[in-house]
Amino acid sequence: MDYDKITDDLLNEVAGTLKSMSKTKKIDEKEAYSRILKNLCDSLEVFFNMATEIMEYGDFDDYDDD
């Protein structure tokens, strides 16, 4: 599992969603985008917490499944 790629992809999705959200004028669409952002940020939190836990035990690359 490539943790860097997953994190980068999630961050790109966050940036794209924010850009789309800024273009819309309808409140219901903004609310939908805010829910998407919340889910993406929750997913990022999972990976950041996992990385923090793994780093406590040593090198992050030691736990790569590839």
Keywords summarizing the entry:
mainly alpha, 77% helix, 2 helices, single chain, 66 residues
Describe this structure in words.
With about 70 residues, the chain is mainly alpha-helical. It has one domain. It contains two helices and no strands. It is elongated.
Q: Element order, helices and strands? A: HH
Structural class: mainly alpha
Helix content: over 70%
Low-confidence stretches: none
How many domains, in number, for the residues? 1
Which oligomerization state do the chains in this entry correspond to?
Answer: single chain
Please summarize the sheet with the most strands: none
Mean pLDDT, as a whole number? 86
Identify the overall geometry.
elongated
> For the terminal residues, how far apart are their CA atoms?
6 Å
Number of strands: 0
Beta-strand content estimate: under 5%
- Rg, nearest Å: 15 Å
Number of helices: 2
Give a brief rundown of this model:
The chain is mostly helical. The protein is 77% helix and 0% strand. The protein has one domain (3-63).
What's the layout of helices and strands?
Layout: H1 3-23, H2 27-56
Helix pairs in contact: 1-2
